[in-house]
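Lecture 7 notes: from sequence to structure.

We start with a single chain of 119 residues. Read the sequence below before looking at the structure.
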Amino acid sequence: FGFSPDPLFSYDELVDRCVLLMVNEACLIMEEGLVDGPSTVDLGMIFGTGFAPFRGGLCSYADHEGAASIVERMNKLKAKYGDAFEPSATLKKMAADGSKFFPERPFIKYEERIGFPAI
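Now the structure, written as tokens:
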């Protein structure tokens, strides 16, 4: 097509720019009382948008990534792209006290795989 990838941002930054905004918005709608909790958010994302079920939804994804990591990454994006990336009060609180949306769930590490598997 005659163009090459922009070297100014990485694949990880591109994913963060998309997914972390959704995580933040999930926190905002919980703060506003529009949903009754993280289970409803996760279920809505899986059945409503096709979010990867093995990740469990946005709140489960946030638990896996860790709130402190998410807030740190959002602050970097905020510095680069503006206030749209301001972390919600919920994320900031969770980062400060190390809490999770689903503290009773066991942590099962998964590795991101990019590209096609070798045959």
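The mean pLDDT is 89. Keep this in mind for problem set 3.
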